[in-house]
Amino acid sequence: MTGFPGAARPVRGGFVLLAPDTGRPLRTVPFQYNPDSLTRTVQAQGIGPEPGDRLEAQRLKGPAHETYKFEAEFDAAEQLADPAAHPAEAESGLLPVLCALESGLHPTVAQLVEEDRMAALGLIEVAPVEAPLTVLVLGRSRVLPVRLTEFSVTEEAFDTSLAPIRAKVSVGARVLTVDDLGFRHPGGLLYLQHHRARERFADRVTRTPSDLGLTGL
């Protein structure tokens, strides 16, 4: 059965890992199925230490803290039905995509080996290695530099080699702002683009107090 000829192709969300210094894409991991629901929490950065501080009640010291929580589901059943077209899934199930998703949480083997070499020479640096910049993509209007704060994988079915073929990934992510990255960092520039888009959407709401039954404020 074929789809409707004029049907719009759904946009897939996912993650893109960028080189932290150049912003070059290193790895793209799309969601197989977009999340059914998403919880977004926004907390303002106020500076008033106590309620009732009249001088500081309306002041903001920086961008709000914004977090996302959602679940992404993956299933290799369709790929396994045609192993010639999908050799990676036929051989390893969902291990490639799951490892790609969590690759931004681990230093690379090369980084670990280099740290060990430098430590043996007495040249170990104090600064930890810098991970790739993780970008959460939820459509063209929401492209967010994030740090993963939660990453939990539930593997629900396996092939005969014990490779997972169905999995649910629970993700928690905090949006990184210019406070975290600076204004010239690739992630800081992405945040500013996201913030501009949010302001443009807000400007589309043109209601007035009279729409709430008020004659004035």
UniProtKB/TrEMBL annotation:
Highest rank taxon of the organism: Bacteria
The organism of origin for this protein: Streptomyces polychromogenes
Record protein name field: Uncharacterized protein
